[in-house]
Amino acid sequence: MKTKPDLQSVTLRRATLDDLNTLEQIENNCFAGDRLHRRSLRNWIKAPHGEFIVAVSQSRVVGYGLVWCHKGTRLARLYSLALLPEMRGSGTAVRLIRELESATAARGYLFMRLEVAKTNQAAAALYRRCGYRVFGEYHDYYEDHSDALRMQKTIQYLSIDKTQRLTPWYQQTTPFTCGPAALMMAMASLDQSQVVDQKEELDIWRQATTIFMTTGHGGCHPLGLALAASQRGFAVQALINTEGPLFIDGVRSPHKKEVLAVVHQQFVEKADRDEHIDVIYAEIDQQRISDWLQAGYAVIILISTFRLDGKKAPHWVAVTGIDERCLYVHDPDAEDISQLAIDNQYLPITRQDFDKMSAFGSGRLRTAVAIKKQG
C-alpha cells in the first residue's frame, strides 16, 4: 500500500533560478498542453509583480504556485499551480495556495482570481475547499478547446458590494478607442440589444474623437461620447471640472492646440442643443459616482494610466461597482501579454488610488459620463 507523503516534511520558499530545470520537468509532467516554457518560468522567477513559491520535500522541489499581481489595482490571479503526482493528497496544494494568498495579501491585494478546466473536477473541488467561488465561464479557453471556470476569492476582508453592475467586457481593437469601448460596455449593461463590435467602436470614435492628442490619433472627448450615447437612445449626464478646451496640456504644436480648441467648442455647442444631455461643470467625487450607480446609471470615467503602466496616458474605463474600500472597473485595454480578459473585468481599485488615478494631466482634468435609458 502506497504511503502518502508526510506534509510536515514539506517546506515552502520562493523560487530561484537554480530551480529552473526542476520546474520545467514539473511543468512537462503535470500538463499536456498550455505549459509555461523555460523562458516564461525564468521571467516569472525574476518578475517583481509575481509571487512564485515552490514546495520542497527531501531537498527536492515537488511543486509550485505562481501568482500574477495586477499593477495599479487590488486584483491578483493564481496563474499556475502544479504538483508532482506523488504529492497529491498530501495537503501540499492547500498549503501552497494559503502561502500565496498570504504573500499576495501582504502586498495589499484584496482578490485572487483563477481559471480551471471545467472538466478538472478535482482541481475545482480543491479551489472550492479553499474558499473560491465560480463567477463565470470561458468557452474554448484551452488549447484542446475545453472550457474554463472562472473563480474568485476575497483574500482580505471587504464589505459586500451592493452596487455592482453586470457588465459585458469588450477589448478595444485600436490604441485610441478606449472611450468607445468603455461606452459600449456601459450601454450594453443597460440594454442587451446594444451592438458591441468593432464597427460600432469605430463609428463612435469618429463621432467623439478630439482629432489630435499628444501623439498619434486623437482620443475621445467626454461630450463627444455623451453625444454618441444620446444618439443611441440614452439620457446623459456629463461632468467636467473645467470649461476650457481639454487635452491641450501635453500638446506642443500651436496648430494642434487650435484644432483641439475648435473641436471642443463644437462639442460644447452640440451638447448644449441636445435636450438629452445635462452638462455639469464641477469636481467629481466618489459620492457622485456612487449616487449615479444607485440611481441606475452606467458610468464611464477618464483616468490616467500612470499607476497601471507608467505612461500617463488618458484612458476611459467603465465603472461597474463601488463599496466602502474600492471602485470596480472594466478596463478595455488588455495589451500586456500577461493579461487575460479575466484580468480586466471588475478590477478592484482602492478609493485612495482611484482618487489619484481619476485626475489627468497637469491641469488635473476630471471627467465622467453617466448614461441611463430614456423614459
TrEMBL record:
CDD domains: NAT_SF (cd04301). SUPFAM superfamilies: Acyl-CoA N-acyltransferases (Nat) (SSF55729). Residues 10-156 form the N-acetyltransferase domain. The keyword Transport does not apply. Keywords: Acyltransferase, Ribonucleoprotein, Ribosomal protein, Transferase. Pfam families: Acetyltransf_1, DUF3335. GO terms for cellular component: ribosome. GO terms for molecular function: acyltransferase activity, transferring groups other than amino-acyl groups. This is Ribosomal protein S18 acetylase RimI.
